[in-house]
Amino acid sequence: MSLDAVLSRISEIRSQIDTLQSGGATRTAATPGSAADSSTAFASALAGANGSTGTGTTGAAAAAAVAPAAPATSVDAGAGTVATGSGATGDDVVADAKKYLGVPYVFGGTTTAGMDCSGLVQTVFKDLGVTMPRVVPDQAKMGTEVGSLANAQPGDLIIPKGEGHVVIYVGDGKVLHAPHPGKDVRIVDNWYKDSDIATIRRIVPSAQDAAATKAAQAVSATPAAGGTDLQTAALMSLLQSGKAAA
Fold this sequence. Notes:
This protein is of the alpha+beta class.
């Protein structure tokens, strides 16, 4: 969705708000649900600008597309949740993992003196304040499942069948991992196909989801009687998130 389309969607939100406020209702008496509805609508527009949903996706489906399902309330990674407590995103995972490029592979290692694949993953998330299990089979149960490589975002974990290895997806078809003895932590082209993969796990929100959720929350929190109306706040949030050029 282009910026023009996003602006058009925000204009529609304004019209809906004006309709709710007509008939003698004041701005301060606006229905509590109207802010939430506009928040969901804006989340839909932002998701479209990010390419997260189809152009016809609205309402609850759009909210599910831009917000992590059942967010964890702590910074412990959990099965079926994303760990939101640390504020870290998938981009942070990639940035932190890159600090360990060149560290030699050492089976069982978790330090800059040497680390294995799951030790690297555990260490990266520990740096970001998120507790992860130590071994691949346990890491494969954490977070939420991503359906396919086409839906993978930077920071997601790719675990092949057999659960004998784990790599961090960095985007653009590349992964970062600790390969095997004699090699060091490196970034390479992803060699896995969907048919090779046991699971793809999202441990913290993707940067895209985090930006959309933050913008939607900002709109929902804007007072109806404030000096800045909802649609203006929505546009400001969109521009500040850096997604307007998408």
